[in-house]
Design goal:
570 residues, Glyco_hydro_29, EC 3.2.1.51, Immunoglobulin-like, TIM Barrel, alpha+beta, FUC_metazoa-typ, alpha-L-fucosidase activity, 20% helix, 7-stranded parallel β-sheet, 10 helices
């Protein structure tokens, strides 16, 4: 019978002084620069969300007490017997995809543990399967040269000592004991490092009530055991925000934009976590991203100076769905040819622009030309000379200089349907250059309403700034409004993408999209649900675009608006 080994840990943590809620808490020390740089060089990793919930095909953690009754959810482990689980095959799939590391959900918000933990009976060893998944996968990854990391949920809606529970981490438990829970968390994370390390990272999530007074000594203890381990920015909750799920401040070693591509950032590392389908855990017939979406996501992350942690959800029998495996292998094939423009690179030296991103290493800048890029592509000239320019695997490219710009024109036959990568060799190391802004895609933006008239934080331009962490917002109760922007230059476009801010998605219930061509406004799309919306239409030379919201449940919030360009009108 396993026993809880928490008394000593609880007493030690209980002696630590509590931080006043109105004080700025100390931060977690960062990993050595070489460890962070090594992780950044990898650029591409696999995220795996898996557990007994796969038997139901619902979302891990979040469906407990929602789609699946709590008692039923908590008993799923008694049926969990993934007889086709093959850790070596998972590692081979990651390697074939060109992924350099793998992060497994060892414990999600539902509290179930995929390893043989001395702290709980609610783990993989109590299932009919009875094999230590973390042990097998960590060993398989190392054999394939894949760095191994663990996801660990800081909250635990199953554990009786954690203050909050299902559904959705909003139910208050009758007898919470954060001190005891903190000792439990520290014991389990210590197990992960000592039994399965060295780990690339521990990827914490949704701390809620788990604050800095517990999180900092826990992380310090782990770093003392393994100095090179990386932590993300969700280790502990911010004071005053312990029941919310928003991103944490910049603690740990890297930021974690979720289900979106981060904005360009070279002063702090980041990693986008995103699903290959829609749900994190396995769901039957879940909609899967196209190869173009997958490659574009990877390339745009690298161009913004970030990593991509791309998630799969294995099936109840332990296999990764074959269609997902095939898509990942297609990504690997692309990387076999173009990997030099991703691995070991940093974003820049030109920040992402309309239809392109750049990556760099040594004396080389890689220009990633996306399908909607105009022809020619106008780049701000760098303070160096071009030695050579050629398409990877293809012909040489001529780059003309005009005023303070470089004009890159590609033959139509040379353009690839997903990403045409141009290798540009320069006469000096490009890492010495400060990243510069790309030409603006949009000109002035206007709107009928702005939240509390705060144009600095919520003005219309925030929806067109290429930064998904900013937004245009309007006052609560606003049911009708409009948002409009000029294009920096008249340009042929074939579509428009709009992202409602995720935490306010679903408010817009009726809208239309208009494009100004010449002196006329033309309606190109109408709908009753916005969310992440994409409209495609016959190419038109546009000077402005406009979103008219004729009905909303509450004040709309828009994070990003993008136009899809064509190189030229036929």
């Amino acid at each position: 019978m396993k026993r809880f080994l928490l008394t000593l840990l609880a007493s030690v943590i209980g002696c630590l002084p509590l931080l006043a809620q109105d004080q700025e808490p100390p931060s977690v020390s960062v990993a050595p620069p070489e460890a962070i740089a090594n992780w950044q060089d990898m650029r591409f990793g696999m995220f795996v969300h898996w557990g007994p919930v796969s038997l139901k095909g619902t979302e891990i953690g979040w469906s407990r007490g929602r789609e699946v009754p709590i008692e039923e959810y908590d008993a799923l482990y008694k049926q969990f017997n993934p007889v086709n689980f093959d850790a070596a095959e998972w590692a081979r799939v990651a390697k074939a995809a060109g992924m350099k590391y793998l992060v497994l959900t060892t414990k999600h918000h539902d509290g179930f543990c995929l390893w043989d933990s001395a702290a709980t009976e609610y783990d993989i060893m109590s299932t009919p399967f009875g094999r230590d998944v973390v042990k097998e996968l960590s060993e398989a990854c190392r054999k394939e040269g894949i760095a191994f990391g663990t996801y660990y949920s800081s909250c635990d809606w199953y554990h009786p000592a954690f203050p909050l529970g299902s559904p959705g981490g909003r139910m208050e438990k009758p007898n919470p004991d954060l001190e005891a829970y903190g000792a439990y968390l520290q014991q389990q994370t210590t197990e992960l490092v000592t039994k399965y390390g060295p780990l690339l990272t521990i990827w914490f999530d949704v701390p809620q009530s788990y604050g800095a007074d517990l999180g900092i000594p826990m992380a310090t203890n782990l770093r003392d055991m393994q100095p090179g381990i990386l932590f993300n920015n969700r280790i502990y909750a911010e004071p005053g925000r312990t029941k919310k799920f928003s991103q944490q401040r910049a603690v740990g070693d890297y930021d974690t934009p979720e289900q979106r591509i981060g904005a360009y950032q070279d002063d702090r590392p980041w990693e986008t976590c995103m699903t290959i389908c829609r749900q994190w855990a396995w769901k039957p017939d879940d909609k899967m991203k196209s190869l173009q979406e997958c490659i574009r996501t990877l390339v745009t992350c690298a161009g913004g100076n970030g990593n991509l942690l791309f998630n799969v959800g294995p099936m109840p029998d332990g296999r990764i769905e074959m269609r997902q495996v095939e898509r990942l292998k297609e990504m690997g094939k692309w990387l076999e040819k173009h990997g030099e423009s991703i691995y070991g690179t940093r974003g820049g030296p030109i920040k992402p622009g309309p239809g392109f991103v750049t990556t760099r290493k040594g004396n080389t800048m890689y220009l990633h030309v996306l399908p909607e890029a105009p022809d020619p592509i106008e780049l701000p000239a760098l303070p160096c000379k071009i030695v050579n320019a050629e398409i990877i695997g293809g012909e040489e490219v001529t780059i003309q200089t005009r005023n303070d710009s470089w004009l890159v024109s590609l033959p139509d036959a040379a353009r690839q349907p997903i990403d045409t990568v141009v290798r540009i060799t320069l006469d000096r190391p490009v890492m010495d250059l400060v990243a510069i802004e790309a030409p603006k895609e949009f000109g002035p933006a206007t709107a009928s309403h702005v939240f509390r008239e705060d144009h600095g934080r919520y003005g219309p331009g925030k929806a067109f700034d290429g930064n998904p962490s900013t937004r245009w917002a309007v006052d609560a109760g606003t049911r009708e409004c409009w948002l409009q922007a000029q294009l920096a230059k008249p340009a042929p476009i074939r579509g428009i993408e709009i992202d409602e801010t995720p935490e306010y998605a679903g408010r817009v219930v009726k809208f239309s999209l208009k494009v100004k061509s010449g002196t006329q406004w033309v309606t190109v799309a109408e709908g009753e649900k916005l969310g992440k919306f994409r409209a495609e239409f016959d190419p038109v030379k546009a000077t402005a675009i406009r979103l008219e919201i004729s009905s909303a449940m509450d004040g709309p919030n828009i994070s990003e608006v993008r136009v899809l360009r064509v190189s030229k009108l036929r």
